[in-house]
Design a protein that fits this description.
The chain folds into 2 domains: about 10-60, no CATH class; about 70-100. It is built from 6 helices and no strands. The protein has helices spanning about 10-15, 25-40, 45-50, 60-65, 75-90, 95. The protein is elongated and about 65 Å long.
């Protein structure tokens, strides 16, 4: 079963869209097909910018795509898991692995 790719700027992206919750998925699949079938760069953001459905949020798009907004409570959750799960599990091995203390992590 083949997948058809809609080129940017063709009629399906130019005309107004009803409130269709599947549109982001459709655009994502189209952009993915371009990457996989044609070996071109992912153009999803360009597709979003050229689709009238997204006009109400275009001025917020850069902020919405900021990776920093996607990690949520991850740092706090990691600290909690280390404190309440990992450290207690390691305590019984403390004499074998040495003193358990804080580690400095640099990425």
């Amino acid at each position: 079963m083949g997948c058809s790719v809609t080129p940017l700027g063709k009629d399906t992206l130019d005309r107004p869209h009803p409130a269709d919750p599947s549109l982001p998925s459709v655009l994502s699949h189209q952009a993915g097909a371009v990457v996989k079938q044609e070996g071109k760069p992912n153009d999803l953001i360009e597709r979003i910018r050229k689709t009238s459905f997204f006009e109400p949020i275009l001025d917020q798009l850069e902020v919405l795509m900021d990776p920093a907004t996607f990690f949520g409570r991850s740092p706090e959750i990691v600290d909690e898991v280390l404190e309440f799960d990992v450290k207690p599990a390691l305590e019984k091995y403390e004499s074998a692995i040495g003193r358990i203390g804080d580690a400095d992590l640099s990425v």
